[in-house]
User: Fold this.
Amino acid sequence: MIGLGTYAFFWQHSSEAPDPIGLPEMLRRTRALDADLFQICDYEAITAFSADQVRDIKREADDLGITLELGTRGVLPEHLATYLALSEALGVTTVRSMINTAEHKPTLGEAEQLLGRALPAYEAAGVTLALETYEQVHSRDLVSLVEAVGSSNLGICLDPANSVAALENPVDVIDRCAPYVKNMHVKDFAFTRRGGWVGFTLEGAQLGTGLLDYDHLMTTITPEARGINRVIEHWLPWQDSFEETVRMENLWNSTNLAYIRSNEK
Assistant:
């Protein structure tokens, strides 16, 4: 499936928004774009939702015909148990996470032990945990961790753009992680010169206009054949105003979905 997530509406639910939109509106806008998937990712407020509020989100998604995924950060067993409980309430079968949080940065050995404690409950519930590629953990180490834990319910959420900041070649990240991919974040990116031509800025771009080798990504991962969902995200820089930023955010949502659909193999 192809869909959107909270990062596709980053500015519209941020503190910069005069009237931030909530999850129900994000779901409705996702449906309006004929997308079947929505990932509630790094949306910390959901952990404080009442049981009734969680049921309302599931009902809204069900009524719209949208499959839900969850995303969080960290590998502490008690935190992952919270998201497993949310997964069961929302009908979610994939949870994206990252090894580190702002407060907890385990070694690879510590992460292996923590995941070893958390994974049996995920396996019993039929929920997959996908650890995202990003600059704080080299993709080689992430693959080694997944192999060491050795659970069919643990894999990788592939986002090759994130690893560029650690000077990893996105193609290398794709190739290295391919056998372990369970989930995908799809976003394009480009380097632009900073003012005065002093250095570069790595920022988002519309799909097909940046440096992401989308053809290689698709032919290597073959997400349709493997049942791997693709979630569109953005690194959209702030524009001249909130109104212009939102216009661009919504435009990228529609054009990026169109790009993926037009390039289906």
About this structure: The radius of gyration is 18 Å. Strands lie at 2-5, 37-41, 67-71, 94-97, 128-132, 154-158, 181-186, 188-193, 200-205, 229-232. The mean pLDDT is 95.
